[in-house]
Amino acid sequence: EVVPYNERFQWLLGHELVHIAVNDGASNVESFFRSVFGKVNPEKNRPVTILFSLLTGSNRYTPRWHQEAPAVYLETWFSGGFGRVLGNFDEMYFRSLVAEEREFPGDVYLDGILGHENFLIETLYYIYGERFATHLAIKYGDEKIFQWFSTDKSDFYPGFKGKFKRIFQISFSDAWNDFIKEEREFQLKNLKILNASTLTYLQKLSEETYGFVTDPYYSKKLNSIIFGYHRSGELATLKIFNINNFTSRKLVSLPSPSAIRVASTAYDDSLGLVFHTTNNNQLYRDIRMYDIENDTDRMLFEDCRTGHLTISSQKHELWGIQHNNAKAILVKSKYPFDVLETMVVFENGDEIQQLAINNNGDFLAAVIHRASGQQSIVISDVTKLDEGGKFQFNTLTSSGSPENPSWSEDDRYLFWNAYTNGVSNIYRCDLETGDISAVTHTLTGLFKPLFISKDSLFAFEFTSDGMKPVMIANSKAQRLPAINYLGQKVLDKNPEVMDWALPNAADSIDQSQFTREKDYSSFNNLKIQTFIPIISGFQKSKVLGFYAYIADPVLRNEISLEAGVSPFKELQDRVRYHLKLKYDIKQTYYFAFEHNPTDFFDLFNERKRGTIGNRFAVGHNDYWLYDNPLKIKQSTELSYYTGTKYINDNLVEVSEPDFYVFKTEFDYKDLRRTIGSFDFEQGNHFRFSIMTFGADLEKFEVAPGSYIEWDNYSLYLIPHNVFRWKFSAGYHHLNEKILHGQFFFGGFGNREVENEPVRQYEKVFRFPGIPIYSIPTDNFLKLMISNMFPPFRFDSPEILGHYIKNINFSIFSQGLITDLPNANKWIDVGAQLNIMFSHWYNLESTLSGGVAKAWWKGGNDWEWFISYKLLRD
Fold this sequence. Notes:
By secondary structure, this protein is an alpha+beta fold. It contains 12 helices and 46 strands.
């Protein structure tokens, strides 16, 4: 929605293949390491993979804006000039920053703060990457850009900033400051051009900014505007805004919003019904219907893959565009909206979107985007479609990438916004005379016009923090002077960039070279992806060995193998050989075998997880429902242990050395988060686990049990301040021969060096303030309440690609009731501080510290910890 493009697949492939070319580039040294170890991905359970990942894939360890810069810059020229370099949105964003007298971010602030908190989120990386690359192309030429982003065979891990200074003969920080200075000067000139003509008066309806917004609708009965929005610190929501007294209220939340259009919506004022879509950024769209008067929201069409909704308030016919098999389909549903009828199936290539039916329900306005890059607003008489007629249309305008059409109340006028002079302004067409005129002249941009009366229009004004609702006069603007595009300077300096345009894909296909389709064999395509030496720990000994990862390209079969030996005779038990083997099938079934399994973190921690003995396991993971944000998953595993002495970090002695464990867990997760969050902030997470310990198969000794967990998250007081409560309960049938099947409570759980989630106190069997695993019980009830405060992000100094990403703090209290006879009630209070670091712009680690005090009948105790966690969860 914010980038000019031509044929969408070719444009997208042009972008992504640049990523592949840049990140796959390797120096002689890197090529050598790849030939030995493969291209290694970092794994949190084997942190030694970080070193080998840096050695074999160093180009991936740069900021996201740096990753996007060459892809966005080149996509424009590969597409014959269609792309962000000559795009309107990027010009608007930087023009808005200067008009608002906002500070430009430094590169670390952009990567660590702004890209997480601003409503544009990751779009900012594309914008700044493209703009910085364009600045360099104008000042230094394209050849130096290519040198910077490509990898020379003689390079030796120079780092992107060190390499920048060598190529451009200027420090990166000085070049970034030059970029900011020249961008500001360029936009000041554009603002001067625009200010030379009388600007349209904008009556601001609110000082609030709403991030990205849906199409707005006017309710004449309520004299209100209905629209959806998605902004930082707040869940995406439908809202009704009264334009008399400027009051507003929320109607219904919009789960799984898309980045730009948020959701597709339509409004029938006579029925008081708002139609809206879910699953807007993943999976299949649903259409839901919200009744304003009754405050009810229900599913209308599930998984219908339909968006770009519009409805006639007279005929009550809901129209939309459905996508199936890469084809766009015009569909319609008549009141009472029981069935979606297929009206027209469009051919591949052109796209039809942003539908707007007139009030009479006989003419449909739409935006058609052609594979040539041309974008037009068209009008079609749809009354003939019911009789089997063809979809025919008249083109109204193709000037300035027009979009967001809407009708006047009497169907005489059509309004839209377009970048005809380089700025998004509102335009109006008198359909009786065919006269088209500009309604506004503005500095930043106006979007989504909506007819209110013959004198007034509603629209959204763009700001660098999001859209603002405004009212404008429904009259002609005097004059619209045209701005300059920074990308034009690239063309002026190097016109040859237009020669980089890729030939049309359809004309380049030589079908005689096609081969017949063959069945894909995952076994025949298995390949060693990673093979590296590793060091790990086993209790108090060091283990030397290797790690291998074998998989086919589409991951239908995956084999991970870790084997090692303890050569230093550090254990009295003479445990020397170690093996961990796992085979995954379609990421659904798995088989595992372990012999004296190691743990890298045993090298550093007092509590050891490496256990003596063998483990055989078979498991299955399956989603009963995957419908973002709702996911229902079942995980089942049957494990058989032999020769085992201890479990639970070697702190709980087992009753029988040979035993089995069966566990199945149902996981219901319906959780959401807002822009700028660092964890889940709203919703519910419910888990129900059934587990059985068994031993002595001949006598069939068993100790079954089950437990439930229910977590609820909610935002309150201020953005990103999360209140959470967790209720859990469990029952275990005691068997004196299998005492290790009990529930064991206690402790924060964080070890000195860790790979588990940092807030382990949230786990069901943790109870900070008393020693870990010190409360064995067969039955329990537990309640936890906690408050996670908003993350604190600041412009941390960067040292060689490392900086502080955020600091977060939480407080909590828990109550536990068990069936122990001496002390069966416990309570604690505690707090935890986490400092999250970014490493080489692509990896994370967290330094945590916590303290808690617990009380029980006849005693109390303190616990504290300091822990360092490697990599993200």
